[in-house]
């Protein structure tokens, strides 16, 4: 797979979309075979590889007790990218959370929490995006926003692998259909 | 990095203060039940005090261990922590340190106060404080291995006690032993040295064990 590729993973429930993405981000060890990044096994690259990857899973990865700004800043700081309060608030504003960025996340709706999690895509500078069903509970506006984010990322030489049942209709989409 | 993890966990604990306070109250109440049940027999109270305070500290730390990783596991932030570009044992060390500050340090600070009910002398209260200060990091460190192993299991709370309490026995023996020695009027330094050695060994090994257990639990 070369840089600037967008892959849409499809397939019925239980066909292994999530497992594949979790293997790709090293959370899961494959039973056989190996995955290479720039010619080296991702297992042996370790942190060097993980630093290039942003994985967003089923669960939002948002702490209910923290505000959206705090969530975004802490998760980025732990990834080695420091984000100022203003930058975090601006990213959340672009995700449609303006005015709600300082509320504890438990007061946000499901879709708003999903948006807060997706705001990480705006501030990270990783090469490989692994997105697992991130479009659930998002409204039309947010879906098109995520689509344009992915489009920019791929146009800028990144790779995005997205598991979703919705049609994203991006140009040059590669499809990978998994079967049970 | 370590700083951010500790700060994050401390802030989360502060926003759910009730959890933290319940551990402290449990400790205070359990320790206080013994003088109330036994009555004003000062000689007997002095003899049982080291064991009672230490056992109460072990049980109180059991209460909070379940939350060490479980909340992060449920909302998906734990897998994000695993995917940060830094050694996992550092993440674990940061979370364990935060757990010690939130769940164990209050017990250490309040122990001399509740120890007064057992008619302990000032010097013995000081040794009680020191023994808990040296010994409670062991509880957090070894406990984190148990918490990681039982992550996501049903009835993990009971299982974690069965796994971890036997491993606490050396800390209990040397910790309570130090206070006992002080009650008897002998030097507690041998017990404290052994307790310190045990703390250093668990500091060296348990973050690695916890990191490995977390990887297994999240697969």
Oligomer: heterodimer
Helix share, percent of chain B: over 70%
How many separate domains make up the residues of chain A?
1
| Strands of chain B, count | 0
Judged by helices, strands and strand pairing, the structural class of chain A is alpha/beta
Keywords:
heterodimer, A: 180 residues, alpha/beta, Rossmann fold, five-stranded parallel sheet, 8 helices, 37% helix, globular, B: 219 residues, mainly alpha, 9 helices
Sum this structure up briefly:
The complex is a heterodimer of chains A (180) and B (219). In chain A, 37% of the residues lie in helices and 16% in strands.
Description:
The complex is a heterodimer of chains A (180) and B (219). Chain A has 180 residues and is α/β, with parallel strands linked by helices. Chain A has a single domain (5-177), classed as 3-Layer(aba) Sandwich (Rossmann fold), CATH 3.40.50.300. Chain A has helices at residues 17-24, 42-45, 47-50, 68-78, 85-94, 110-118, 120-123, 140-155, and strands at residues 5-10, 36-37, 40-41, 53-56, 128-132, 159-163, 173-177. In chain A, the strands form two sheets. In chain A, strands 4-5-6-1-7 form a five-stranded parallel β-sheet, sandwiched between helices. In chain A, α8 (140-155) links the parallel β5 and β6. In chain A, α4 packs across α5. The model of chain A has no long low-confidence stretch (mean pLDDT 88). Chain B is an all-alpha fold and 219 residues long. Chain B has one domain (2-218). Chain B is 86% helix and 0% strand. The longest helix of chain B has 30 residues, at 189-218. The chains are: A alpha/beta (180), B mainly alpha (219). Chain A binds chain B through residues 25-29, 47-48, 50-51, 53, 55, 57-66, 70, 74-75, 77-80, 104, and chain B through 1, 4-5, 8, 11-12, 15-16, 74-77, 79-87, 91, 218-219.
